Amino acid sequence: MADTAYGSEESERTVFFRSAEAVLRLSVAGGRIGDMSDALDPTPYDALLLLSFGGPEGPDDVVPFLENVTRGRGIPKERLKEVGQHYFLFDGVSPINDQNRALLDALRKDFVEHGLDLPVYWGNRNWAPYLTDTLRDLVRDGHRRVLVLATSAYASYSGCRQYRENLAESLAVLEAEGVEKSALPRVDKLRHYFNHPGFVRPMIDGVLKSLAELPDDVREGAHLAFTTHSIPTAAADASGRVEDHGDGGAYVKEHLDVAGVIADAVRAETGVEHPWQLVYQSRSGAPHIPWLEPDICDHLEERQAAGAPAVVMVPIGFVSDHMEVLYDLDTEADAKAAELGLPVRRSATVGADPRFAGAIRELVIERAAVESGKAVTPCALGSLGASHNLCPVGCCPARAPKPAAAGADSPYA
Asked: If residue 301 lies in a helix (H) or strand (E), which one and from where to where?
C-alpha cells in the first residue's frame, strides 16, 4: 500500500498553483476551449445524468435499501438490521438524496444563468430514483447522447467502474424490454474531477473556516486529517489505469495530491504550516482482509498521544455530507475526540456549492469540445494533471468481470 507517513515536509510533488489566491483565480477562469465564442455548446450531448449511490428516506426503507446494496452476498436480514442502526439513529433517513436534490438545483440554476441548454436527470444505484427508470425516461424523452456525472471524484472500482457496470446493466434491461440497441442513449462519463479547482477551492475554504473556529490557543498547532473511504488494499492497488496499479494505485495517489494542494493553499493563506496526513474511515467487510489504514479514530488517538493540540478533519473523499460523514466523523470520531479531550473540527464537504456546479458546467463543455474535435486545455490542480476522459481497458478491474458502459470496453459505444 502507499506510504502515507505523517509529516508536512515538501515532497517531490510539483503543485501547479500553490497559493489559495491562485486556486481561486483558476476556479473563476476555468480551462481554455478553442474559440470561446461557442464554448457553451454541449453538442453532441443532449442531457446530463447525475448518477449516485442512493439512500433510505425513512425507517421502513433501511433494510430494503441495504438488501439492494448487498444483493448477491447472502447476508441475513437480521444482520442488515444491525448494520442499519447507523441509519436508525437519524430516523432512517440518509442525507444523500436531499444532497443530490440540492446539487440538481444548483446545476440547473448554473446552466440557466450561463446559457447552457442541457437538461439534468438523476438516477441512483441502490434506491429511488433508480438508474434503470431514469434511463427509461431519457429514452422516452428522445435523448441519444448522455453525459454522466458520478458523485465520486476519484478512481476506484466502487467509485467508477461499478457505476459503469450499473449503466451497462440498466441499458441491457432496456434492450431486453424491447428497446432497439440503436435507440439506446450512448452514455459517456465525465472525467474524475478530484483536482478541478471548483471542487478543491470550496474544500480549502472549509479548512480555513474550521481552523478559525478552533480556540486561539490551539489553532496554530492544529493538525489536518484528510479523510476518505477506506477500501481493501487490493482494490486500491488495482485502481486507475493499468500503469497506475500497485502501491495504493490511483486512489491513494489522487487523494494525496489533493491533500497536498489544500495544505499548500492553507499555508499560503494563513502563513502557518499545519502538519497533515491522509487517513481513512468507514471500513466494512471481513476483518482478515487488509484495508487502507490508519482509521480516523486510531489517528486521533495517535495524534493526541503525540501532543497535537487540535485536529481538523477534512473529508476530501466525499462529495457531500452523507451518512459516512454524519456518523463516522460527526458522531463516532467526535465522540473519540471528546473521550481524548482533543479539540476537533470537521470541515465542510463541497455539496451543492455554486463553484462545484460551475466546475461541472466546465467539465461538460470540455468533454463536448473533445468529442467535437476542438482544442482543449483541461483545468486541473496538483501534479497529476487532468484525468482521462475515457476509461481504458483494465481500469479499476472487478473481481468478476462484467460489461461496463462509458469506457473503451463498452458494449454500448
From this structure: helix 296-305
